[in-house]
Amino acid sequence: MLQTIKGYFEKGQIIMEEEPPVQSKTEVMITFLTEKSEPSVGKRIPGAFKGKISISDDFNEPLDDLKDYM
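Given the sequence above, the corresponding structure tokens read:
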């Protein structure tokens, strides 16, 4: 069973924000999330693509490629 618990690393110790769901010795893997490894995403601007994207008039029409299957 995989279980994720959020916590933080400080002064050589890992502090978990909640109690682990196990009571016995258990193998763990720790992933460090640093600011450098997170992707930089710009602020979303609503309507930024207005007028730049169009859908053809026959968008909902059946595809010719599928005629053999109908």
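Strands lie at 7-10, 13-16. Try to locate this feature in the token string yourself.
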